[in-house]
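Deliverable D4.2, example record:
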Amino acid sequence: MLKVKNFKIGYDQKVIVKDFNIHVKKGEILTIIGPNGSGKSTVLKAIGRLLKPMDGIVHLDKKNLWEMKGKDIAKNMACLSQRNTAPEDMTIRKVVTFGRNPHKAWFEGINKEDEKIIDWAIEKTHLKDMENKKMIHISGGESQRVWIAMALAQQPKVLLLDEPTTYLDINNQIEILDLVKELNEKLNFTVIMVLHDLNQAAKYSDKVIVLKNGEIQALGKPEEILDKDLIRDVYHVDMNILKNQFGEKLIFIPKKIHGYNT
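Output generated by the structure prediction step:
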């Protein structure tokens, strides 16, 4: 589905990420985790063609991403950053409508087929009862659902989500991640996202990548790679690691923070 090979990424000749290689299968949820400054968001920007890598290549369905037209990429991949803004007096439905832009010529308006897709995106993100509300009148969690709805209206194959739960309370964090998981399971979307919370990464991901200082420290199923030694080395924290009541997912409970030079 999506392959990244030999990525080297940086700014102004300063290398931030190097030797980055992944293969994400169709329908997988892959989460990138790691300390602040480890290069998580930088990787996501490069995968989404928002930042040109110094070296390396991305293949989407065997096509070189950097040889594809912008509109063709937008039809296959939707990228949501940490902060997304829209005019405060714009309605939810109007924002979602922008998701159809990649499928339209510059002079084309919205037709009946577009309206059906917009209705579907609004329904899937549970926004139907508030679609005529203005953006200024909705909560942070509702706003995130609007941006995901706009991404769905693009009808992409891949969703890139950069810290989709940032600035949200725990209730809204769970709501957004449950929605992402629901869309992944019901619509077979491939999802690559950046998260900070280890418990959320373990619960919602098929695989995780652990980054430290711009290099991959581990890649695999959360229950197979996230152990005490790895977490201590990457985060400088001792953790109790438990199984949930079903014996399936991991639960991380911090014990002790170590100095960075230990």
